[in-house]
Design goal:
Blueprint: E1 5-10, E2 15-18, H1 22-26, H2 30-33, H3 47-54, H4 69-79, E3 97-105, E4 114-126, E5 142-151, H5 157-163, E6 167-171, E7 177-180, H6 182-188, H7 192-196, H8 210-223, E8 229-234, E9 240-252, E10 255-265, H9 268-277, H10 305-310, H11 317-322, H12 337-343
Length: about 350
């Protein structure tokens, strides 16, 4: 219900807790940031200000000059002074209230890569940590910053509306849909059973966006995250819906197991703007087996001449559909990008 997220940061600068809504504002998943140094998320120019506000008297031990920001956060942990409660002001003291602004890294479509947040809250004792001092004696609870972080610039009505329609889908490694949350069913109109029926998830992607999505899919298999991808999805009403998506690999026992995609619907004008900015430097050709992302050993017998002469992907919709329905006959793997286009009904274009 908040226009923001809850953040609890220990005196050493570790994020003890963040509410899951951090993903709606910064794009980081709750589990990505918890127990990490908060200074890895904060703009270098604002780190000292954040450090100051973590300290009960606003005068933290000074971090050495020229130290990398992430290391600065860690060194602070080792040099943080443990205080006994009787050395500190009473917990209800207005002296421990905090309100300040910091720029945080933001993975969402934010031009500078940072989002200015207003942090409002207070320092309170963080109980139940059972920390030990160097001589082995138990340390008393230490102060931590409990704050509500809200964007400095209030969101527009449009942003509020689209934020409320962020949906998530789960896919196999070749992008075959496995599950979709309730909001996704509202936006796209499909049931989970309908999403799982045929082929890979690429038959729901607009032909002109397929290679762009595939390129980011390949990047995600290498790095664990696709980066922001803007493309069109086919809804059940046979309309194209622009979405902005970020896909992440989920690992089990050190091996990638499935993909989770967070998707935000866009208005058509926003989608068109992204399309104009998109650069097409494609890692593989469209018609041959190179475009098959997984199980690429599929035997591909000779292609009919029109494909051979095309080489790189043709943007013409006619070319895409002139060979519709002959995928099996020509030996095109239905789970390749070309096979996915051939499964689409050309009426949707």
């Amino acid at each position: 219900a908040l226009n923001g997220f809850v953040l609890v940061v220990t005196s050493e600068g570790l994020i003890f807790y963040s509410s899951h809504t951090i993903q709606d504002y910064l794009g980081f998943h709750q589990t990505d940031v918890m127990h990490q140094s908060v200074f890895e998320l904060i703009h270098t120019e604002d780190q000292q200000e954040f450090r100051r506000n973590l300290h009960w008297a606003l005068s933290p031990p000074h971090a050495p000059e020229g130290e990398p920001s992430a290391e600065g956060g860690k060194s602070l942990g080792s040099s943080a002074v443990a205080y006994k409660p009787d050395q500190l002001p009473p917990e209800n003291s207005s002296f421990l209230e905090r309100s300040f602004v910091c720029r945080f890294r933001c993975l969402l479509d934010n031009s500078s890569g940072f989002l200015a947040l207003n942090l409002q809250g207070r320092l309170k004792f963080l109980h139940g940590q059972n920390k030990k001092s160097e001589d082995g004696s138990a340390l008393p609870p230490q102060l931590a910053l409990f704050a509500i972080s809200t964007p400095l610039q209030p969101p527009s009505i449009l942003q509020i509306r689209t934020k409320n329609m962020i949906f998530r889908t789960k896919h196999k490694l070749d992008f075959t849909p496995l599950a979709c949350d309730a909001k996704g069913k509202i936006v796209l109109g499909y049931t989970e059973a309908e999403l799982q029926v045929c082929g890979t998830g690429y038959q729901f992607v607009h032909a002109a966006d397929m290679l762009y999505c595939a390129e980011n899919h390949v990047r995600m298999m290498k790095t664990g995250e696709s980066g922001l991808t803007v493309f069109r999805l086919l809804t059940k009403e046979n309309r194209w819906k622009w979405v902005q998506a970020n896909a992440r690999l989920v690992y089990k026992n050190g091996k990638p197991e499935y993909i989770i995609v967070t998707q935000r619907p866009l208005v058509d004008e926003e989608g068109g703007e992204h399309l104009r900015k998109r650069s097409m430097h494609l890692p593989f050709t469209f018609a041959t087996g190179e475009a098959l992302l997984y199980k690429s050993a599929y035997p591909l017998p000779g292609f009919p001449d029109p494909f051979q002469s095309k080489g790189k992907a043709s943007k013409s919709k006619k070319t895409f559909h002139s060979h519709r329905g002959c995928s099996q006959k020509n030996g095109v793997d239905p789970s390749s990008l070309l096979g996915a286009v051939m499964q689409q009904d050309k009426a949707v274009y």
